[in-house]
């Protein structure tokens, strides 16, 4: 979500309604996109069985959403400045809702993946402008802090509700309803947005946006994930050629940003040690957490035999703990000890939690083998994420705050999608190899997931080492 500070060219939101009513509308729209990410995770096995996805191919149900979402955040944030944020927000709700219906009606892999990509574009349109609208609505710093706290709590609650709803809907009605449920929510949010939120003029599309740059970076990201996910299904030569093409697209994007008059991403941002380091740490940390959520849900269902509803219920403590700790402790802890120490402590907890989860026994118990690492990972993320965000934003100039926030959210999505592609591919390859040697299917599946968890431990250790080397305050 791109934090864009209101300027004189953006008039304040409508005052005929309570500002808190307007905040509720913004939260409702964002809640729908948050619900979607968590709902899908629990329904993965059902989608795989119904549509015949391979193990690595199943990751595209998530990645097809994440890649357009991450790739378009910078562009649609800029377009929101140019054409008006309310207009972008409402348009995003409409796109997301329509795509959700298409997902719910999908009967084949191609239709579902294509609709998920459109969902990702709609989610980016909503998320890229919502914090900028919130800042304009609550200019007073203390009120703004309270509003952001409420917004963050809604995000955490959405995670908990999404995981549970995914299990309940899949169990009772089928996986199609995890998408169809967005239709009434989306329509209500759209009508409320049009009615409650006041139009903001925008700077005008004549100011321009870097559309070719967006095409280059989005294509590079999508091709990178495709190379990783499909590496086991093609030869080494083809894989290397596709990887080289992805690298060439990234290079072309970088060159264009250095030369174009109105770049999508101003390269001077990367001169900041804190901003660059925080984004690099986030890629590894979010990759670890995506591994926990995605592979963990599959482990509960494919190895421990949980149904969809029980899996959703099993994950409830994680987002609840994250939300409670973020609202109750994070700000005070960071104020007392500083963001670097809190970040380091959080990453240590994430490493410990992932290391415990990497045991993943075939005959595991939720109470002894799943819940303890789940709580450690939740506490670690609740401590690390706000601290990391503060460090990243402290490294940006005031005039670059919106762009820096967009970049931070983009690397969050990119880190999750790339890590998910790597972890799911490794797990599937390991399982298939063991099955070819006659190993019991459940044992082979558990071993594949253990490999994925161990690689996620490496991600977490890398994040901790990078934070210690790059983000440590000078002179310490």
What is the compact description of this entry?
Helices cover 80% and strands 0% of the residues. The chain has 476 residues and is mainly alpha-helical. Its main location: membrane.
What does it look like?
This protein is mainly alpha-helical and 476 residues long. It folds into three domains: 1-208, Up-down Bundle (Growth Hormone, Chain: A); 210-263, no CATH class; 272-476, Growth Hormone, Chain: A. It is built from 16 helices and no strands. The protein has helices spanning 19-51, 55-83, 85-105, 109-137, 141-172, 177-180, 182-196, 211-229, 236-259, 273-302, 308-315, 317-337, 339-357, 366-394, 401-436, 441-471. The chain is globular, with a radius of gyration of 21 Å.
Ordered list of secondary-structure elements with their pairings:
Blueprint: H1 19-51, H2 55-83, H3 85-105, H4 109-137, H5 141-172, H6 177-180, H7 182-196, H8 211-229, H9 236-259, H10 273-302, H11 308-315, H12 317-337, H13 339-357, H14 366-394, H15 401-436, H16 441-471
Helix pairs in contact: 1-2, 1-4, 1-5, 1-7, 1-10, 2-3, 2-4, 2-8, 2-15, 3-4, 3-7, 5-11, 5-12, 8-9, 8-15, 10-11, 10-13, 10-14, 10-15, 10-16, 12-13, 12-14, 13-14, 13-16, 15-16
Name the descriptors.
single chain; 476 residues; mainly alpha; Growth Hormone, Chain: A; 3 domains; 80% helix; globular; disordered N terminus; membrane; transmembrane helix; MFS transporter
């Amino acid at each position: 979500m791109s934090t864009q500070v209101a300027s004189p060219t953006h008039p304040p939101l409508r005052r005929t309604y309570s500002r808190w009513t307007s905040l509720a509308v913004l939260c409702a729209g964002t809640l729908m996109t948050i619900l979607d990410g968590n709902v899908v995770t629990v329904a993965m096995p059902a989608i795989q069985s119904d549509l015949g996805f391979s193990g690595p191919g199943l990751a595209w149900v998530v990645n097809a959403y994440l890649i357009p979402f991450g790739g378009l955040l910078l562009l649609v944030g800029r377009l929101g400045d140019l054409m008006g944020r309310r207009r972008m927000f409402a348009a995003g709700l409409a796109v997301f809702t329509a795509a959700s219906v298409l997902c719910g009606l999908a009967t084949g892999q191609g239709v579902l993946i294509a609709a998920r990509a459109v969902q990702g574009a709609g989610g980016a349109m909503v998320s890229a402008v919502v914090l900028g609208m919130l800042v304009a609505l609550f200019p007073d710093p203390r009120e703004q802090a309270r509003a952001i706290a409420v917004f963050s709590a809604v995000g955490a609650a959405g995670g908990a509700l999404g995981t549970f709803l995914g299990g309940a809907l899949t169990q009772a009605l089928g996986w199609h309803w995890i998408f169809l449920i967005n239709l009434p929510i989306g329509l209500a949010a759209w009508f409320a947005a049009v009615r409650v939120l006041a139009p903001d003029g925008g700077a005008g599309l004549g100011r321009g946006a870097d559309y070719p740059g967006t095409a280059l970076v989005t294509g590079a990201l999508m091709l990178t994930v495709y190379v990783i996910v499909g590496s086991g299904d093609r030869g080494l030569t083809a894989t290397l050629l596709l990887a080289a093409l992805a690298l060439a697209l990234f290079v072309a994007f970088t060159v264009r940003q250095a030369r174009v008059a109105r770049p999508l991403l101003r390269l001077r941002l990367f001169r900041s040690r804190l901003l660059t380091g925080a984004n690099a740490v986030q890629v590894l940390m979010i990759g670890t957490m995506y591994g926990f959520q995605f592979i963990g849900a599959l482990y509960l269902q494919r190895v421990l035999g949980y149904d969809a509803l029980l899996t959703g219920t099993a994950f409830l403590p994680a987002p609840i703990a994250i939300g409670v700790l973020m609202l109750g402790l994070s700000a005070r802890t960071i104020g007392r000890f500083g963001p670097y120490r809190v970040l380091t402590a959080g990453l240590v907890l994430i490493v410990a939690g992932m290391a415990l989860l990497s045991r993943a026994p075939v005959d595991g118990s939720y109470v002894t083998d799943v819940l303890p690492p789940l709580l450690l990972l939740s506490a670690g993320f609740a401590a690390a994420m706000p601290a990391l965000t503060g460090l990243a934003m402290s490294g940006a100039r005031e005039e670059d705050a919106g762009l820096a926030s967009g970049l931070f959210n983009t690397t969050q999505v990119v880190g999750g999608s790339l890590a998910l592609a790597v972890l799911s591919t490794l797990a599937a390859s390991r399982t298939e190899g063991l099955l070819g040697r006659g190993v019991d299917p459940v044992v082979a599946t558990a071993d594949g997931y253990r490999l994925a968890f161990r690689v996620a431990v490496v991600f977490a250790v890398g994040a901790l080492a990078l934070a210690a080397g790059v983000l440590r305050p000078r002179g310490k």
